[in-house]
Design goal:
The protein is 39% helix and 19% strand. It has nine helices and ten strands. A six-stranded antiparallel beta sheet has the order 4-3-6-1-2-5. Helix 2 crosses helix 3. The protein is globular, with a radius of gyration of 22 Å.
């Protein structure tokens, strides 16, 4: 990317402290100038604003690492296909972004800074467009998946098993965006809790969070036979290479991607020592403890799986497994 990272970072540093106002201004400007784009977004934009600014922050502070940034932008471009984003939409988004940064960094704004932002956005947009176009003939923009099992482990945690209508290639440790018919255009991310399977099914561990539209729908209102929409698998977490020992630490449903990675390592035939530390308030919150114990009985992974208080007088427990 032939841009000036210093000028972009200096101007963006003035926008960061007012992220909420800047994001609101961006969407207001975008929809005022391109009202036809409003239908591509969810009714409530609070989460969308956070994601926008999170992605923008990552891009700005990764300008000095072009290889890693290009990989991230390519992933974003492929993922945006599920929203129906087309190449021509990037111009409207770029105009709104430039107007937003110009407004909130007005005290230092110069033609040189504007040129740096235009160059950076043009390069980023081209990477995203190229990635989306190269992926369009290879895989769908989104997958339909049937719910074939819904296991309510606790009041607020469920394990869903899904069967995508088409093969869903992924790497253990990745996540997918999920949309339910109950909330159109609202996507939320969930880690895939298993290594790739021969039958193409995937499992998701979902905790219903207060006010969570999608998570609550998945835990409390989704039934076997329902259909969900899945975005393309994303994320760079993956099984480690080689035979080095593995230390995995997680809490709650954050255990899901680590379970997938451990499954993948065991299936590969490698036998490194795997140390898993898992924290939860109650043992029944450990949605995968039966799996660890099953592996232990079959001599395929965990040599122990114990449950003990983290410390005297402290609510919460920690489970520890080791091969």
């Amino acid at each position: 990317m032939s841009v000036n990272p210093r000028l972009i970072k200096e101007s963006f540093a003035l926008v960061e402290p007012v992220a909420a106002q800047a994001a609101a201004y961006f969407y207001g400007r975008l929809f005022a100038e391109s009202p036809h784009l409003r239908g591509m977004f969810p009714p409530a934009l609070d989460v969308q604003r956070d994601r926008l600014f999170g992605a923008l922050t990552r891009i700005v502070w990764s300008l000095d690492s072009p290889d890693g940034l290009a990989a991230y932008l390519g992933q974003l471009g492929r993922d945006h296909r599920k929203y129906g984003v087309l190449a021509e939409h990037y111009t409207a988004v770029g105009n709104a972004l430039l107007a937003t940064v110009r407004r909130f960094a007005a005290e230092i704004w110069t033609s040189e800074i504007e040129a740096a932002w235009v160059a950076a956005y043009t390069a980023a947009a081209n990477i995203m467009i190229d990635a989306a176009e190269s992926d369009s003939g290879v895989s769908p923009a989104w997958w339909l998946a049937e719910v074939i099992d819904h296991d309510r482990r606790t009041e607020d945690i469920a394990v869903l098993t899904l069967r995508p209508a088409q093969p869903l290639p992924f790497t253990a440790g990745q996540y997918v965006n999920v949309q339910t018919a109950r909330w159109p255009r609202v996507w939320r991310t969930f880690s895939i809790a298993n290594a790739p399977r021969a039958d193409n099914t995937i499992s998701l561990h979902v905790r219903a969070v207060p006010g969570g539209w999608v998570s609550t729908a998945l835990v409390r209102h989704t039934r076997i036979g329902d259909t969900l929409m899945l975005g393309p698998p994303m994320g760079t977490m993956a099984p480690p290479a080689g035979d080095r020992d593995i230390l995995a630490v997680a809490g709650g449903t954050g255990l899901a991607p680590l379970k997938a990675i451990v499954e993948d390592v065991i299936a590969s035939g490698r036998r490194p020592n795997i140390h898993l530390l898992f924290g939860a308030r109650r043992e029944r919150s450990c949605t995968t403890c039966p799996t660890w114990r099953g592996w232990s009985r079959r001599g395929r992974g965990c040599g122990c799986c114990r449950w003990s208080p983290t410390s005297p007088g402290t609510p919460g427990c920690a489970a520890a497994c080791r091969t």
